[in-house]
Specification:
The complex is a heterodimer of chains A (163) and B (259). Chain A is an alpha+beta fold. In chain A, β5 and β6 form a beta hairpin. In chain A, 25% of the residues lie in helices and 28% in strands. Chain B has one domain: ApbE-like domains (T-fold), CATH 3.10.520. Chain B contains seven helices and nine strands. In chain B, α1 packs antiparallel against α4. Chain B is globular. The chains are: A alpha+beta (163), B alpha+beta (259). Chains A and B meet through β1, β6, α1, α2 and β7 of A and β1, α1, α4, β2 and β3 of B.
Chain lengths: 163, 259
């Protein structure tokens, strides 16, 4: 029988992890018992919603968060859009990076189990993510609404940011 | 909100194909209980190590209100790891030279993720991966004969991958950069925000070290690449503002891509 090798996933949203936000008491854990293929949109019955467009502090750009859920559980959280303003955007295009990307795509036959990157902790990210979750809650995703029932879980509570 | 932590757990092998058996259900229950313990551990680490909670032991330590031996023993354990990374990086990682006082945050997230993953491992789950806001640790394999495949995000575009790294068995990946939050990584030698790189990634055996090394590599502007290449079990690469990628020799991804 074919079955997904990774069958349990969980998302702990709202953790501060010494990163600079005070966590809410209502921090929740979503234990995902749905069979799923990790980290991509090939999940049967997956629903992807996109959060509100949020400006980053300091005029750095703007972002939009997307959330994919299947069987009432969050499968992945990522960026639907990320526009960064600044000179590096132009500089990067004539660089080694496109070449590497091409090679990566060519080598990319199988599933991706995770993506490493700088920490997602901007207030804009939190706000857009919350907007996306609210859309899921508005739909028929009862389990998701339960698992992330407190809409303010993802709200930063002041303080600064550090790494 | 802090950050988002996600887990992927591989279910124990079934003896035969077919309907779930009682032992499958028991393994599921054990795994879910382990997930709860892992989440509780992450919250505990935040309560102890947060530099933003005024009453956390680390905050009190920063203000000189308590001595180290009055804090939970894990604080001394983490500071010892910090000291080892400081030595290994010629001081490019230095929690004792931060503008606001002692700040081990650059290592704590990776360390916390390793602690959480350990709860999963102790519960007998054959393979698992934790992604703590883009810093990843894993053990085992997602399926027989398959490595964990980790994309490294393009520093300027969330929906694009720059590289793919494969972890076969235990391993960790951490990325530091300013693209998400602006300039927040401090050069311990000058006390000023670090500039020059878009991102720095370290691949290695332990996420606590990889996390701290990635921070150090970033603030060094890439100067630490040579040093990291000489650390057994660790690799790194940087993306500079002009889009040039520099990597240590033997980075797993480079070999994969060249093939």
């Amino acid at each position: 029988m074919n079955r997904s090798p990774v069958v349990i996933a969980a998302t702990v949203a709202g953790l501060a992890l010494a990163l600079g936000f005070r966590p809410q008491a209502a921090t929740t854990t979503t234990a995902n018992t749905a069979a799923l293929t990790t980290g991509n949109a090939n999940v049967s019955g997956a629903q992807t919603v996109v959060g509100s467009d949020q400006a980053l502090a300091g005029g750095l750009g703007d972002i939009q968060v997307k959330v994919t859920a299947a069987n009432g559980r969050i499968v992945s959280v990522g960026m639907a859009k990320m526009n960064l303003h600044g000179p590096q955007s132009q500089q990067i295009s004539s660089s080694v990076i496109p070449q590497l990307e091409q090679q990566t795509m060519a080598a990319n036959g199988g599933p991706i189990h995770g993506v490493s990157g700088a920490t997602y902790t901007s207030k804009a990210y939190a706000t857009s993510l919350q907007a996306a979750l609210s859309q899921l809650k508005g739909g028929s995703n009862a389990a998701l609404a339960t698992g992330n029932g407190n809409g303010s879980v993802l709200q930063p509570q002041g303080g600064g940011e550090s790494d | 909100m802090g950050t988002v932590v996600s887990f992927s757990l591989r279910e124990a092998e079934r003896a035969t194909d077919g309907a779930p058996s009682g032992s499958d259900a028991a393994a599921r229950v054990a795994a879910e209980a382990a997930l709860e313990r892992a989440a509780a551990k992450l919250r505990w680490v935040d309560d102890v190590f947060s530099t933003w909670k005024p009453q956390s032991p680390v905050s009190r330590l920063r203000r000189g209100e308590i001595e180290l031996d009055a804090a939970p023993p894990e604080v001394a354990e983490v500071l010892e790891l910090c000291r080892r990374v400081k030595d290994a990086t010629d001081g490019w990682f230095d929690p004792w030279s931060m503008p606001g006082g002692l700040d081990p945050t650059g290592l704590v997230k990776g360390w916390a993720a390793e602690q959480a993953l350990d709860e999963i491992k102790k519960a007998g789950v054959p393979a698992a991966l934790i992604n703590a806001g883009g810093d990843i640790a894993a053990y085992g394999r997602p399926a027989p004969g398959q490595p964990w495949r980790i994309g490294i995000r393009h520093p300027l575009a969330e929906d694009r991958l720059l590289l793919m790294v494969e972890l076969d068995g235990p391993g960790a990946i951490a990325t530091s950069g300013t693209y998400e939050r602006g300039e927040h990584l401090i050069d311990p030698h000058t006390g000023a925000p670090a500039r020059g790189l878009l991102s720095a990634t370290v691949v290695g055996l332990d996420l606590a070290f990889a996390d701290a090394l990635a921070t150090a590599l970033f603030v060094s502007g890439g100067a630490l690449l040579e040093r990291i290449s000489r650390l057994a079990g660790y690799h790194g690469f940087t993306v500079s503002g002009d889009g040039i990628v520099r990597a240590t020799r033997g980075l797993p991804v480079a070999l994969k891509l060249a093939a």
